[in-house]
Amino acid sequence: MKTKIFIVSSIFTISAIIFIVKLFFLQVIDTSYKLSAENNALRHITKYPVRGKIFDRNGKVLVSNKAYYDLKVVPRSLSEFDTAEFCKLINISKEDLIKKIRRKRHSYKPITIKKQIEDIEYAYIQEQLFKFPDFYIEKRTLRDYNELTAAQLLGYSAEVSGEDLKRDDYYKPGDFIGKSGIEKKYETHLRGKKGEKIFVVNVHGSIQGIYKNGKYDKEAVAGKDLISTIDVELQKYGELLMQNKIGSIVVIEPATGEILAMVSSPTYSPDLFVGKKLSENYRRVEKQKGKPLFDRALRSMYPPGSTFKLVNALIGLEEKVINNRTVFITDGYDAGTHVVGDHISGLVTFQKSIQFSSNAYYCHVFKRIISNKKFPDYASAYEEWKKYVQSFGLGISLNTDLNFEKKGILYSSTYFDRYYGKRHWNYNTIISLAIGQGELGFTPLQSANMISAIANRGYYITPHVIKKIVGDTIAKKFTEKHLTKVQAEYFEPVIDAAELVVSAGTGFSAYLPGLDICGKTGTAQNPHGIDHSIFVAFAPKKNPKIAISVYVENAGYGSSWAAPIAGLMIEKYLTNKITKTWQEKRIIEADFINKK
Asked: CA nearest 297: which of 405, 455, 396, 185?
């Protein structure tokens, strides 16, 4: 009996001690409950952080901030005031004012009476606001674009949606969030941390002073600045060359994977998506010719055309089904059901096949790859070929720091099994893949990355647009090498031939003495009209500093438009001058959007 009494007594004693300690913690140590209890007599004003700035690789400011002001009031605490004078002061109708207040008339939460007031108007209102003590000003910032370029790449920020509020409780109605581009991808770095200032208010809601001398106030922490990889002068030049054209330019520094420029054309001015007219301007841009809101560099998928012959050449060399002395005598390629035409005929060497872009040569190469006797069947050979292609970053997600990146089209053998029947297809059935046509589709970013891997003799680094986060580190993946399945020794003969493409072949329109440009022209078949002009290149041949892909829709051969654009971009970046001014003029004046 004594033991039972002891146990019961101990339980009550321990429980009492726990309650006493808890009460002490709540009443003496933890002040949050006290703050909550006093909340009806306090006003919590959010201090919004300044959003991080974005710079180009050379330190030029691309995106900064400008101040604006929201006029607010707590409806429940609103006392009588001269509505006519107030409405005149802030330039609002009496009906709109009453509607705003009446909707939330019993709320202790502040509502916005007028948002995004600019500096001049703010100064005028502030002088008279003492007459209306229940109203107060809250300072905010909007994005300010120092360079009116790279709109799709930079993205924009706007007020949070209902979905944004559900995803992250950091945000409150009226907050701003990155909606696309860098603004969206690096939102958590750019946004900073909110602060808070607490005021004591009387029963009428008028501020009486700072609560506890600011003991519980929190300072806002500014967002982190971002140093981008973009060269703003090269970006602007690319947009100039692509004006009145539909297509894209992607420029990469091969050794680092840093994106030097990314042009999607047509484009628009980034400052259209700032302030009160954002929604109106968005709808207007959305309706413009060429769909400026569609980021072609990341989301358009084109057949790579003859640029893909470089990859098939490398696979053929690695698989030892050809070497750099292999010759085919061709007059087109007979695929059974049709003949694949060619630009050249007769005796075609390996070097000549790239220099003058032989279709038949690569049909023979592809046939040897897919019919290789070391594989048990065509499907197995095809799957190995597919792995080679993917190792160049094609047909897969590159996992960049950009939004909405498409992974492209590169089907597995099971697709052909379903379409033609298992074991009812062979190399001739899919011979279009030999020349970059048929069941293939890659983005301009992937094509630029592919030529970067070739420039590097067998590796690439994941393309990215942020070079440095001030006060933080970029992801490790943006410094790691991705090796192709082709050994370095097989790249030199392909690169030698790619140099001849520019100096004395189909890409001669990109030639510039002394720059040692290596490239490949391509034409993407377009079932809806004129074919697309494509060119990929890098320079110089040794220790390359720039790799580029250019796509111009409905412009015909790669040699006509894409190649000269690439040449101008390369010269601009490597020498900071343009020697072919006649060519530059022709490109700038060309209009493929508004032509009849």
From this structure: 405
C-alpha gyration radius of the chain: 32
Tally of CA atoms within 13 A in the half-sphere of 43 that contains its CB: 28
What H or E segment, with its residue span, contains residue 410? strand 409-410
pLDDT tens per residue across span 246-289: 999 999 999 999 999 999 999 999 999 998 899 999 999 999 99
Give SS3 for 159.
strand
Q: Which one, of 566, 568, 505, 508, lies nearest residue 538 by Cα?
A: 566
Same fold? 41-77+85-228, 232-267+295-589: no
Residue 596 has which token pair? 């009849």
| Domain boundaries along the sequence of the chain | 41-77+85-228, 232-267+295-589
- Taking the C-alpha atoms of residue 544 and residue 521, their distance in angstroms, rounded to an integer, is 19
Query: What secondary structure does DSSP assign to 211-255, as a single string?
Result: GGGGTT-B--BPPPPEEES--HHHHHHHHHHTTT--EEEEEEETT
CATH code for 41-77+85-228?
Answer: 3.90.1310.10
Q: Which two tokens stand for residue 285?
A: 């841009």
Residue 253 token pair: 């520094």
The Cα 93–Cα 544 span in angstroms is 63
- Of the candidates 521, 447, 458, 490, the residue with the CA atom closest to the CA atom of residue 313: 490
Neighbours of 140 (CB within 10 A): 19
pLDDT in tens, 3-19: 666 666 767 677 777 77
Q: What is the pTM of this model?
A: 0.89
pLDDT greater than 80 at residue 39: no
CB 190 within 8 A of CB 52: yes
Q: What is the DSSP string of 73-133?
A: E-GGG-----HHHHHHHHT--HHHHHHHHHHTTT--S-EEEEEEE-HHHHHHHHHHGGG-T
DSSP annotation of 53 reads P
Sequence-distant contacts of 585-591: CB under 8 A, at least 24 apart: 587/241, 587/561, 588/240, 588/241, 588/243, 590/244, 590/245, 590/561, 591/244, 591/245
Residue 33 is predicted with a pLDDT of 46
What's the whole-number mean pLDDT along residues 177-192? 96
Task: Check residues 306 and 32 and name the one with the higher pLDDT.
Answer: 306
CA nearest neighbour of 74 among 104, 115, 117, 37 = 104
How far is residue 74 CA from its own chain's centroid? Answer: 40
Which letter does DSSP use for residue 28 in this model? Answer: I
Residue 596: per-residue pLDDT: 47
Is residue 306 within 8 A of residue 436, CB to CB? The reply is: yes
Nearest C-alpha neighbor of 326 from the set 349, 304, 294:
349
**How far is 502 from 504, CA to CA, in rounded Å?**
6
Q: For residue 358, how many other CB atoms are within 10 A of its CB?
A: 26
Q: Which CATH superfamily is domain 232-267+295-589 in?
A: DD-peptidase/beta-lactamase superfamily (3.40.710.10)
Element (H, E) at 441: strand 440-441
The answer to whether 181 touches 230, Cβ cutoff 8 Å, is no
